[in-house]
Write a structure and sequence with these properties.
heterodimer, A: alpha/beta, Rossmann fold, 2 domains, 6-stranded parallel sheet, 4-stranded mixed sheet, 23 helices, 10 strands, B: alpha/beta, 4-stranded parallel sheet, about 20% strand
């Protein structure tokens, strides 16, 4: 049995190589480009009125900031109201703690099979590996998640996990991995195959696991957004339901939900609403005939309190996980989700992952951006993603400081490069030094090295001209 | 200190001094969503839920049973799961059994008949508590008489909706009905049959839930 995979891997390492591999693969390039264009167009069609969009984004931002400002109080109120409703609340600081809580509940019920609705937090904590190591089957039931799990992969997009796969690849995968299935690349048939397999599993499962889109403090309610019905299956059919979520996904009032829900579905997939909106406020009552008899909520920190502690970085926690930033990102569209090496890819992944994994593991991720600003412009809750990317670059590449705001601050610091830039800045601040430096450069340009690090990997070396502009002007006078 | 106390302590130490005023959600809806007449709301509801692939039939108050029978006949469905503890469920059973449609009731805990529910229940009939015009959405509050899985497991879900119960928006529905005062164990918004676009962005219906959603919309006479 495999040991559970812990989260000490280094997404920064190999990032360039993984990106290059995707960029050089025309099929993957086409898959991502096509999917991103499709999602971008669908979102645009949902927001024909620019004023409406802007005012709704402003309201969404206000709601998220208001609720984050009251977060500690709201978490306590949520716990009180959930507990009153019969839902048991657990708290975890780390992925290992969250897994231990979830697997502890499984063991208490002698569970063999856990069926999972879509949950990115469960990906974040690597629950499937931990469950497998504990001898408990963990089966993904969202069609996209089911496909990537069959393929032994991870989601490449937070909303559309199998976006990198063509239907022919999925057809081959089903024919190979699902017993008794012949090759078909008819999408309806493929979905029906998944439906049949998973319906058996919903009936068998001892535990249903889900994420949470919004947790409402005043009513003690967990809200789930989905189209397929697997979330409802996972939270209704098995005798025990465990929900797992980050501590930031709280709203104080039920009335905060409609604007956020509208922003979420319209931004994510360009739908005016999802097929299902499932509001869970307690386990089955004695008179009721279905629903789980036990409901648990696991609240996970995993670096979120670090983001919370800084006024600017706190904005990261406004995220409602719609994925619009990745759909509109020119970098994501070219390298896809796997290249990042983190659970959350794309622009949101670049600003949230450093808090989860530390900058030691993620230092280069914030540099994978042209700062074109598209992510910030489409964000339904107005997270200033480009500003946060700049901030994280500074945190990564500045000299290590005492009491840093972030774990791993200065991880990308290089004393030589830093000294070169400091010298450059000094030269450009002083006219005399500038004249001297350009004079030396033009007179001794034969001494410039032919290999200049990353610059010369795809370009000719930089070499000062033999005569400065200043010299040329002088000659003409 | 345990994990809970440590998390809360870190958050409290960093929380802003004030959260500011409550977000003005009501104000946004007043300025951005119009209040429509009953007929307009019914038309808007119908437009959007049909876009999401649901079938909608407008029926007179006394005529839904006839339409229900016609829908079942057209789909060659010989058995309909009903909620005999509800007035509409009882009426459906009374009216349909004599026309040759079996009407089993959801009258025992799911554990006692899971296999039958999953494999031998082609359709179910429930009521919608209300609906939302803006998005073409049904609101269901399952309860002991009409349990949650009726609207999820059978491949065809037929819903009875009173057109007089259509709200303009989700916000209006929860305000008008005072949801913040208390929600049932499970409340649902349903806006079409189950679907997915997870394979190459190709839309397919009947992913895990019902493949077909039929709305019998009772109009004013």
């Amino acid at each position: 049995m495999n040991a559970p995979q812990t989260l000490n891997f280094m997404p920064s390492e190999g990032f360039r190589a993984r990106s290059k591999a995707v960029v050089e693969n025309p099929f993957l390039r086409k898959s991502f480009r096509g999917a991103m264009d499709f999602l971008t167009a669908k979102r645009a069609a949902q927001f024909p009125d620019v004023e409406e969009l802007e005012s709704l984004r402003t309201l969404g931002e206000r709601i998220r900031q208001y609720n984050l400002a009251k977060l500690p109080e709201l978490l306590e109120r949520l716990e009180i109201n959930l507990t009153r409703n019969g839902i048991k609340v657990h708290w975890a600081e780390t992925p290992d703690e969250a897994n231990a809580i979830i697997l502890g509940i499984c063991k208490a019920h002698a569970a063999k099979l856990m069926v999972k609705g879509k949950s990115m937090v469960s990906e974040e904590i690597e629950l499937n590996h931990a469950a497998e190591a504990a001898g408990i089957g963990a089966l993904e039931s969202d069609m996209g998640e089911y496909i990537v799990q069959l393929a032994g992969e991870k989601p490449s997009h937070i909303i559309m996990p199998a976006i990198h796969k063509t239907k022919e690849e999925i057809a081959r995968l089903f024919a190979e991995k699902v017993p008794g299935v012949a090759y078909t690349d008819n999408v309806d048939e493929l979905i029906q195959i998944g439906r049949q397999v998973l319906r058996e599993k919903f009936r068998e499962a001892d535990i249903g696991l889900s994420g949470v889109n919004f947790a409402i403090a005043e009513t003690g309610t967990l809200c789930l957004v989905e189209n397929e019905g697997n979330g409802r299956m996972s939270t209704t059919v098995p005798p025990v339901h465990i929900a797992v979520t980050g501590i930031e996904k709280i709203v104080e009032k039920l009335e905060h939900v409609p604007p956020l829900y509208s922003l979420l579905t319209r931004s994510a997939t360009g739908q005016n609403i999802s097929t299902y909106f499932n509001m869970i406020s307690g386990p089955r009552k004695p008179v009721e005939k279905d629903g789980p008899t036990e409901v648990h909520l696991v609240l996970l920190d995993n670096g979120r309190t670090q983001a919370y502690a800084d006024d600017q970085l706190r904005k990261t926690l406004q995220c409602i996980r719609c994925g619009a930033c990745m759909n509109h990102c020119p970098v994501y569209a070219r390298i896809g989700g796997h290249a990042y090496g983190t659970t959350y890819p794309g622009p949101i992944g670049k600003i949230v992952s450093p808090h989860m994994l530390g900058l030691e593991a993620t230092a280069t991720l914030p540099t994978a951006s042209s700062l074109c600003g598209a992510c910030g412009e489409v964000c339904p809750v107005k997270i200033p993603i480009p500003d946060l990317l700049m901030r994280l670059r500074e945190e990564s590449f500045s000299a290590p400081r005492a009491n840093p705001a972030m774990r791993g601050q200065g991880a990308g610091y290089n004393a030589t490069i830093s000294a070169i830039w400091r010298a450059w800045a000094a030269v450009y601040r002083s006219p005399r030094l500038y004249r001297l430096a350009t004079w030396l450069g033009s007179r001794f340009n034969g001494l410039t090295p032919s290999r200049q690090g990353g610059w010369t990997s795809v370009r000719v070396p930089l070499k000062p001209a033999p005569k400065r502009l200043r010299d040329l002007v002088k000659e003409r006078q | 200190m345990n994990a809970r106390d440590r998390i809360l302590a870190k958050l409290r130490a960093a929380a802003p001094a004030t959260a500011g005023d409550q977000p003005d959600v009501a104000g946004w809806y007043v300025t951005h969503r119009s209040v429509e007449t009953g007929a307009e709301k019914a038309a808007r509801f119908r437009h959007f839920i049909e876009l999401a692939h649901a079938e909608v039939y407008a029926v007179p108050r006394g005529g839904w049973l006839q339409k229900l029978y016609e829908v079942l006949s057209a789909k060659a469905i010989a058995s309909l799961l009903v909620a005999p503890g509800t007035p509409h469920g009882l009426r459906a059973r009374e009216g349909l059994v004599e026309l040759g449609i079996a009407c089993p009731g959801y009258d025992r805990p799911v554990e006692e008949w899971k296999a039958e529910l999953f494999t031998d229940t082609p359709a179910a009939f429930t009521v919608a508590r209300a609906a939302i015009a803006e998005t073409g959405t049904l609101i269901l509050w399952p309860d002991a008489d009409e349990p949650r899985l009726m609207s999820l497991v059978p491949p065809v879900h037929i819903v009875l909706l009173d057109a007089g119960r259509i709200y303009n928006t989700f916000f209006e529905a929860q305000q008008a009905e005072g949801w913040a005062e208390g929600l049932p164990t499970n409340a649902l918004l349903i806006s079409g049959p189950s679907k997915t676009a997870d394979i190459q962005q190709t839309l397919a219906y009947g992913a895990h839930g019902p493949k077909e959603l039929v709305v019998l919309m009772i109009g004013e006479e």
